[in-house]
């Protein structure tokens, strides 16, 4: 910012002049924090599977809602809303919960896709990013069988890493899921690896628009089936000081015959 580009209006009243200064210097740090912080905090499914190794800020809330549509073969499409709420419980510690609904819950349950299960998690940042090390975090979650056709309580563990460069960041996620109960064709253990990146596209390096992309490889939930390979791309666009619109699309290139040949997700995140 060039020196002298921001000037206070001249006022004959010293009291009004002082009030204007107080308001100005109180608002500017909040605006700068919002531009630098909220847009780049990647939460899983907001809009892609990849997430970063940074919890939400201490004492901050982040609430999200989205709508997802999956195009599958032979007209077996499914769709539904998802909701999540995150809270910065302590510095470096995030607590959160999420729930997602999909149509055809009986058919989806056989493929390991729940509808209405409540997922609670804790994300802890092991190490903040330095010149020599990426940011590192671990996330542990429990998925309770509160939805339709649910079978058991599942355990989720993940290791997250984020490395920042001048105009983009690179992320690596490794996830393990242990199912509490399965059908005759389902696996008990599932593994998933995700590599992704995000970068700003504004020429002035303001993070009002963020592009995101990832590649996701996971074990197939069905026994004896080939692993699932998915590619995704999306955008996060600021539409308010603390409100973000996000949209993403992707495709499962390998996997079951009725895999998601095309998936689209749109939603909103508000941080307060």
Please report the number of helical segments. Answer: 2
- From the spread of the alpha carbons, the general shape counts as globular
Percent in strands: over 45%
First CA to last CA: what distance? Answer: 27 Å
**Quick one: how many beta strands?**
12
CA radius of gyration is 21 Å
Mean pLDDT: 85
**Are there runs of 5+ residues with pLDDT below 50, and where?**
1-12, 19-36
Counting helices, strands and paired strands, the structural category is mainly beta
How would you characterize the largest beta sheet? 12 strands, antiparallel, barrel
Strand order of the largest sheet: 1-2-3-4-5-6-7-8-9-10-11-12
Question: Topology of this structure?
Answer:
Blueprint: H1 14-37, E1 61-71, E2 78-90, E3 93-100, H2 105-109, E4 118-127, E5 135-144, E6 154-164, E7 168-178, E8 189-200, E9 209-218, E10 228-238, E11 243-254, E12 262-271
Antiparallel strand pairs: 1-2, 1-12, 2-3, 3-4, 4-5, 5-6, 6-7, 7-8, 8-9, 9-10, 10-11, 11-12
């Amino acid at each position: 910012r060039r020196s002298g580009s921001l000037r206070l209006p001249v006022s004959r009243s010293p009291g009004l002049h002082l009030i204007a200064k107080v308001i100005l210097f109180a608002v500017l740090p909040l605006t700068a924090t919002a531009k630098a912080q909220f847009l780049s905090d990647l939460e899983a499914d907001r809009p892609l599977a990849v997430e970063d190794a940074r919890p939400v800020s201490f004492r901050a809330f982040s609430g999200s809602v989205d709508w997802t549509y999956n195009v599958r073969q032979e007209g077996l499409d499914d769709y539904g809303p998802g909701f999540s709420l995150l809270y910065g419980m302590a510095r470096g510690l995030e607590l959160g919960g999420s729930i997602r609904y999909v149509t055809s819950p009986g058919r989806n349950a056989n493929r390991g896709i729940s509808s209405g299960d409540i997922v609670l998690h804790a994300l802890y940042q092991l190490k903040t990013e330095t010149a020599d090390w990426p940011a590192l975090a671990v996330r542990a979650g429990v998925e309770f069988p509160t939805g339709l056709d649910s079978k058991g309580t599942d355990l989720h563990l993940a290791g997250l890493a984020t490395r920042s460069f001048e105009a983009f960041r690179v992320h690596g996620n490794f996830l393990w899921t242990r199912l509490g109960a399965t059908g005759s064709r389902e696996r008990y253990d599932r593994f998933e690896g995700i590599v992704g990146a995000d970068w700003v596209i504004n020429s002035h390096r303001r993070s009002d628009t963020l592009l995101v992309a990832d590649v996701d490889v996971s074990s197939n939930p069905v026994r004896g089936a080939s692993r699932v390979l998915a590619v995704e791309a999306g955008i996060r666009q600021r539409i308010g000081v603390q409100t973000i619109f996000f949209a993403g699309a992707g495709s499962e290139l390998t996997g079951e015959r009725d895999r998601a040949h095309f998936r689209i997700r749109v939603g909103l995140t508000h941080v307060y």
